[in-house]
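User: Good morning. I'm curious how arginine would be positioned relative to this chain. Could you predict the structure with it bound?
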Amino acid sequence: MPSRTPHPSPSDAAGLDPLVVLRERFGAAIAAACATLGIAWDGETRIEPSKRADFGDFQCNAAMGLAKGAGKNPREVAAAIVERLDLSGIAEPVTARDIAGPGFINVRLRSDALAALLGRLDTPALGIEPPAEPETIVVDLCGVNLAKEMHVGHIRATVIGDAVARMFERLGWRVVRQNHVGDWGLNIAMVVMKLRDEIASGRRTLAGVRLGDLDRLYKQVQRECAGDKWGLACVRKFGLGPKAAAELEEQNAGAEETVARAKATLVRLQAQEPEIVAVWRRIYDLTMGDCLNNCGRLHTRVTAEASAGESSYADELAGVVEDLLARGVAEVSEGAVVVRVEGIAEPCLVRKSDGGFLYATTDVAAIRRRVQKLGASRVVYCVDIRQSLHFRQVFGAATKAGYATVSGAGSALRGQPAVLQHAAFGMILGEDGLPFKTRSGENVRLTDFIDEAVQRGRAIVREKAAERASDIPADELSRIGEVVGIAAIKYADLSGDRARDYVFSFDNLITFEGDTGPYLLYALVRVKGIFRQAREAGLVPDDAALSAAPILIREPAEKALALHLLTYPAVLRAAAEACEPHRVCGFAYTLAGLYSAFYEACPVLKAPDEVTRLSRLRLCSIAGRVLGDALETVGIPTLERM
Ligand code: ARG
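Assistant: Good morning! Here's the predicted structure, ligand included:
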């Protein structure tokens, strides 16, 4: 978890949310009252939305606890708070009459205050101020492995990672995405070796090889190298006969030989022999071509420039281990080199006794590069939760080595620890509660998965269009359907707490009902639709007139909508800080519901008078822009019409 808040948040988040303003004002009053009454206060204002609308908008529940602790009468404590309370400019003055029951303090916001706050939100940036000095964040995302086709599990590392990156971009940070491609080591050397064998045998040419071939070779060579040591042990133990033993012995000898050849290939790859590198390059290009294509279709910004594979650290690993040893950060243990990290039983292994480096060594080198060279004050890893121990070890080792200390020349954070965070995610499950697989038990290829989403998105969009006898041309419907399908799977992946597994079902996602991507896209299109209707009816003011129109918050539905809109900057900041895009999704879903309630209750184009109509149109405009911004900020593509 992040250990520091480098800069105080710009004032927007605090300034626009009425709840935050109330907390400040109540905080001052409670502190003063407690000082006078000699009560110790824990700093909590205990302000909540009112349980009953006729009591007000918010209530402060602090008096009861304070009185109890000090053996005083809660209503008297409440009165002492109220006496010192200044709510000018935000709420109606609070008097003794607003103290209810055992000491609740009821607060009624002022409509003009809400309108003024909304006016401040109604800017092109929607009230979100960029920081005076942007910090740099590295977001580690996607993380494909060479020679393996991306499967459905990769969607999470890509989609959540991109959403985290986008949230920070939206807040004005300098964001560097890093696709940490698994393109180095023995596994890859095995595929290189196999592919060379096939080429040598004339069965294949380098140019003719396809990603599917690589995937097959990968699995084949893994099997060959595994041998069957366990089987041989069983045969011996249970005396299953010389024939079975001989067969398994041969298989195991074959496996050992294959591994030995793969190791030799790895040495030649590491020595950058052109012939070997050419084969490796082909594997890299095929894998990355597929990867970047999928990332593009998923509306994520993962590019070739944003990809730095494990191979890009290969030259640094020996130096890193030497450095760690030289400074006493690492130690030799049974021939291997380890870094002991406080609080973790298993040390971080950075060099094996045979001299080989590991996944962890690369990640320690990556932290050094990201913090020291790329200037990050924060590095977030969107990686499977099953790698939690790995990241705790690596973060601990890099921190101990001083690699995670911000060094950027001129940075206000120089010398401070960078925030290293594992934004871990759970698994995608099928409806049977087991890991999501094809019917035959294979991993679902990401490409197939995206294809199916798009195809289903198109089907539902066509169906809806036919129901409404829509005049949208077929090719546009097809594009709309694609966006609907992608939005659906992305929203499903983003809208739940990322650390938890979730059950995936196309039927439950690609629907316009409930908490789904398509529902939100439709809600947004409806908000935009009102401006089209207004234009057709000749009722639409120009932008200048609209943004100058006084906002009138009179109906409960208007107030509820306004209150929610005003929390947007704070919600976004908190979501980014915790790397939790689902908070923005939840905000968007609630917004869509409140907008629809407002639309039902408050006629817009048929408003009783011009002033009301303009005010409501302006509310629609703000709601539409905030909803669109929230969706795009977590990477959900949006539509103008559907
Ligand atoms: N390629 C890795 C895997 O498939 C994920 C990489 C995650 N990023 C990192 N810096 N370790 O498990």
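The chain is about 55% helix and 5% strand. Residues 140, 143, 145, 180, 182, 363, 366, 381, 383 surround arginine (CB under 6 Å).
Let me know if you'd like a different ligand tried.
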